[in-house]
DNA sequence: ACAAAAGTGTTCCCCCTACACCCATGG
DNA sequence: CCATGGGTGTAGGGGGAACACTTTTGT
């Protein structure tokens, strides 16, 4: 609201103070498995449990800025490199008792990073780790972070259909095979390669070929793939619809 | 984050307190024009300007609860009736100087109401008014509310494509013509009636016919239309794609 | 020579678009 | 009986799914 309905003579400090934080669901794809960056909690509450990285919003920064700062800290990337990553606001979680200690309102963000050479980074954050989302994560996350993570994962999957989001998981130059890997990993389905290729190339400016192609990347055999980089178009039209999956797929490991 | 990265001996009160508020973009369709519920500001800053209704999040309620409370207050509806309305969180706006007086973080919501018999409601809120979004609104909104409104409007338009959102603008029982009106009004395009009908009926459980049909509603001539009500399905699949509009349409009136 | 991965071509079918056409009611 | 809005039918075209096929590399 910002300004109306303020009772006369209202004093903001009369209210119990709200702490405002950001929580980050940072995703990457490593070896065809979706991973999230998590932190093992040291103190109570939820000592020993996994939690999403995050931190307080400082008095002079927006939630977006705080999220970017935290992203850089937790991944060990420089501010410049981090600002090139995809980072988007998810939604805000504000249940009065989501933190037993005090009133904390948290603005959740989802971030996408390519497979980093270093596991996490030797910077400020000590214990951030990539955790696979393949069902092996059994213990519930701290606070309402399980829900946040599930929401973030769903949002990412949905946006793959009609945006260039998937390239956020890729290095600056990538093959169409790598891009398809991302889709298959996030969605947990197999896609037809010829059709995938056509759809991705159908939207002008979605990906653009880089001239000097065919550098050998994935150690292996087979015809060397052409390299592409992300184009200007951020919306994929027509969208790349996810095949309907009747029942299967492992959505486990997030029940918190 | 909720709990990690707290500096040792951290005292939350050492931080400048954040006020947390909700802002509501409440939409309705009246006479084939999209309207928003706005409030004329009395005091500075932005005295005399239009603003979105909203208010503080109280210490013991979530943002969702606060939004519902405000929605009921501003529309004059009972809490029960209001809770039947569509109300969804949009995103959070947290620029440090979005309010010149103090640090205010606002969680924005979008709400949809059917065309109410009463203009706004004789309840608590004095001056809430429906304002047409047809380009006649020239003055910029207070604070960053112009941006919030634009974001809300875009989100609503987008979600019409693949959800049952449009029925939020309709009374409990409605004709397919009325439903089509909603789409055409929000999107600002004309749709082919036979095809609209088929698409809406294609998803089982999206709308369901109510037995005793053909009540005369819109004073008028023509064959009486069958009545439908919202079904259980909330996703429209396949989606009802918005025709590509090359250039025209009035998106004005929101530049703030 | 064979496997593996990239890339191209082609067929079939479904759905969407566009209209034409009938039905029911009010004036 | 005509205007108006509700409802059904149908021909045609575009695009996606499925799959066959060629190309280029490593072993």
TrEMBL record, chains A, B:
MF terms (GO), sorted A to Z: hydrolase activity
Protein name from the UniProt record: NUDIX hydrolase
Keyword Hydrolase: yes
Keyword list, A-Z: Hydrolase
PANTHER family named among the record's database cross-references: ADP-RIBOSE PYROPHOSPHATASE, SLR1690 PROTEIN
InterPro entries: Nudix_hydrolase, NUDIX_hydrolase-like_dom_sf, NUDIX_hydrolase_CS, NUDIX_hydrolase_dom, WH-like_DNA-bd_sf, WH_DNA-bd_sf, WHD_NrtR
UniProt domain Nudix hydrolase: residue ranges: 17-153
Keyword rRNA-binding attributed: no
Organism ancestry: Bacteria, Bacillati, Actinomycetota, Actinomycetes, Kitasatosporales
Domain of life of the source: Bacteria
Family under the similarity heading: Belongs to the Nudix hydrolase family.
Pfam families named among the record's database cross-references: NUDIX, WHD_NrtR
